[in-house]
Write a structure and sequence with these properties.
Elements (H helix, E strand, L loop, with lengths): L7 E2 L7 E4 L3 E4 L11 E4 L5 E3 L6 E4 L8 E2 L12
Parallel strand pairs: 1-3, 2-6
Antiparallel strand pairs: 2-7, 3-4, 5-6
């Protein structure tokens, strides 16, 4: 699992599907302020799941690390402010 807690994914690009290397994660739709409620999703034994808010199809890919996505750039990272 992700070393810094549950990973969050966003779909600013509006991709129909996103390949990810984890089965438990949070979907937040787009980056703030255009995000939807951050929802925890668990694929369980399945290899794909659809977010009920934004309809993004997430597909598990065992070849990806927990911080990789296809297309790239869908992992959300909080920006620290000084």
């Amino acid at each position: 699992m992700h070393s810094k807690g549950t990973p969050k994914f966003q779909n600013d690009a509006g991709s129909r599907e996103i390949g990810i290397g984890v089965k438990e994660f949070e979907c937040m739709g787009a980056n703030p302020p255009f995000d939807h409620p951050h929802i925890y999703l668990d694929m369980g034994r399945d290899s794909e799941i659809i977010c009920p808010y934004c309809s993004t199809l997430y597909k598990f890919d065992a070849k990806l690390h927990d911080d990789e996505t296809v297309p790239s750039g869908a992992l959300f990272t909080e920006k620290l402010t000084a």
